[in-house]
Amino acid sequence: MKAHEEVPGINVSFSIKFPFIMWFKDYNKEAFIRDLIAGVTVAAVYVPQSMAYAMLAGMPPIHGLYVAFIATIVAALFGSSRFLNTGPVAMTCLLSASVLYGLNFEPQTETWIKYMALLAFMVGLIRLTVGLFKLGFIVDLISNSVVIGFTSAGALVIALSQFGHLFGYQIERSTHIFDVVVDLVSKLEMTNPYTLGIGVLAYAIIWVSKRISPYIPGALLAVIVTSVLVYHFKLYNFGVAIVGEVPQGLPDPEPPPFDFATMSKMWGGAFVVAFFGLIEAVAIAKTLAIRAGDKWDPNQELIGQGLANIAVSFFKGFPAGGSFSRSSLNFALNSKTPLASIISGALVGFTLFALAPAFYYLPKASLAAIVLSAVIGLIRPQDILKLYKINKVDGVVAGLTFASVFFMDLWVAITLGVILSLGSFVYKTMYPRIVILTRDPTTRTFVNAEKKGLPECPQIMFIRPNMSIYFGNAQYVYDYIYSKVEDALFHGRPLKFVLVDMEAVNYVDATGAETIVRLVQDLQKLGVKVAFANIGCDVYPILENAGFDKVVDHELVFDAKGQAIGKLFEKLDHDYCANSCKYVVFEECKTVKPKEKLKALTAV
C-alpha cells in the first residue's frame, strides 16, 4: 500500500473528521503492547526535552510540560499519522521567540508568557484554517533551498543561545547571530567552571547514550545524574543555575490576551511560524507514511496541529509543531496507532501533576546540553554548497537565507528567503525560452535551429514558446516573436507564415490570450499569417473567449507539427522554392525542386 495524498486544489467546503474513532478497528493485544512501549520510550525522552525547548522559546521550563501534555494528545486525536509526535520543537520555539523579541518583550516575564500564548493561538488558527479549507499544498511555496539555509542558520542560533546557560552567564537575548557571538565572546572571562562542567557532563552522557543505542533515554539519564550531583554537592551555592520551584499541575485555563493592536504586529511572524511548522509536520508525516505504506491525509494533519496550538494557548503554552526525532522514535518502535502519542502525553501529564517538585535541582546547563545535542547535527553549511553545485540560483537563495540570520530576526530572514525563492522563479517565467525550430536532416526531427546551426525554411518561421503564457511574460513573448518577424522582413526574407507550436504552453491567462490575439493581428498587418499547432484543450477555450477564432483562420490551426508543415507548404510560393531557395528543409521541398538542382543544393 502506498502513501496517499489528496490531489492539490482549493476546496472551500470543509468538515471536521474524528480519525480516532477508527483506531481500534482490528486492534489487539500485540498492537497495544507496541503502542505502550513506544509511548513510554518517547515519554522518557520527551519530559527533559520539552523543558529544554521551553527555555529556547523564552518560557519557564515547566511550560514545556504544559505544551507536551496538551498538544501531543490533541494533535494525536485529530491528526492522521500514527507516528507524528506534536509538541515543543526547537526551530518552532526559536522562531516564536524571534517574533516576540521583535516586540521588545522580556523573556520569562508574565507579559512574554501571555503573548506567547497569543502567538500559539494565532499559529493554531492559521493551521486549522489551512487544514479545514484543504489548502495544505501551499506549504510547497517554501522551497527546499529556503528550508536548508534557514535550518542551518536556525540551528546555529539555537546552539549559540545555549552557550550562556553552559558557561553560566547571561548573554544578549537575540536571534541575530552576529550580536550573540560578539556578546558571548566579550564575556568569556565570566565563565562559571561548575556550570560548564555540569553542562559538558550532561552532553557527554547524551552523546554516549546515542552511540550505544538510540533507544537509551540519554537526556533523562543526564537530567537525573546532574540533578543528583547538584543536590549532593550543593552546586547551586557555587553559581550553578537550577530550575527551582515549579508548580504542580496545569494552570487555570484562561484565554490569551486578544490585544488587536499587538496582534496586527504579530501576524507576519505568526504566518512564518505556522507555515514553517507545517513544512516540518507534513514532511515528517509524509516521509514516515511512505516508509510504512500508510494512508495519510495532510489536511487532517494540519487540523490536528491547529487544534493542538489553540488548546495550549489557553494554558499559557507556546507554538508547537511536529518533532522529527520523537516521530522517528515512534516509527522505529513500530507504534500501531496514535495511541502511542496519547500514552506519551499522558505520562508527561503524570510527571506534571505528580513529579514536578523533583525538578527543583535540575540544572539549566543540562537543559542547554539537551538542546545542543538535538540541533548540533543540523548545522550543515555543506548542504548549501551542494545545492549551489546542483543549481546556482537555489544555492544563492539558501546562502542568502543563511547569511541574513546574522543580522535579521529569524522570521524576517525566512520571509526574505521565501521572497527570493519565489522571486527567482517568477523572474525565470517572465523571460521564457523561445525556440526557433527547423528539421534535422539526419534524425528528421524538429530541433533548435539556432543551437544546431541549421537553416530554416525562408517562407515559414517555426517558433515554440517553452512555457505557459501569462500576464508576467505575455509582453515578452509578443516582443520576441514580433521582433524576429520584423527583422526577417527587414533583411528581405520572403516570410509568409509564422507557425507557433503551443505544445509547451499548458496555460494562458486573460492577458496572455489577449496578447496572442494582438500578436496575430499585428503580424497580419506586416503581411505575415500566423498558424498554430498543438493548442491544448484547456488553452483553446481561453483563447476563443479572447476572440482568437475571429482573427485566426480555422484552417491555420493544426493538431500536430507534421500536419501543419504539410498544409502550410501547399500555400507557399513554389516558384521561389524551386528556383531561389538554397535548402531542402522539409521532405515536401523535394516535390517542387527540379531533380537536376537537388544534387547541387546543400541538402539539410
Explain this structure.
Helix content is 58%, strand content 6%. The protein contains 24 helices and ten strands. Helix 19 links the parallel strand 6 and strand 7. Helix 2 packs antiparallel against helix 12 and helix 7 runs antiparallel to helix 8. The longest helix has 33 residues.
List keywords for this structure.
single chain; 604 residues; 2 domains; six-stranded mixed β-sheet; two-stranded antiparallel sheet; 10 strands; 58% helix
Can you lay out the helices and strands and say which pair or pack?
Elements: H1 29-56, H2 62-78, E1 85-87, H3 90-101, H4 110-132, H5 144-167, H6 177-186, H7 193-212, H8 218-233, H9 260-292, H10 298-313, E2 321-323, H11 324-332, H12 339-355, H13 364-375, H14 381-390, H15 392-404, H16 410-430, E3 434-439, E4 446-448, H17 449-452, E5 460-465, H18 474-490, E6 497-501, H19 510-525, E7 529-533, H20 540-545, H21 548-551, E8 557-558, H22 561-570, H23 574-579, E9 583-584, H24 595-598, E10 602-603
Parallel strand pairs: 5-6, 6-7, 7-8, 9-10
Antiparallel strand pairs: 1-2, 3-4, 3-5
Helix pairs in contact: 1-2, 1-8, 1-12, 1-13, 2-10, 2-12, 3-5, 3-9, 4-9, 4-10, 5-6, 5-13, 5-14, 5-15, 5-16, 7-8, 7-13, 9-10, 9-11, 9-16, 14-15, 15-16, 18-19
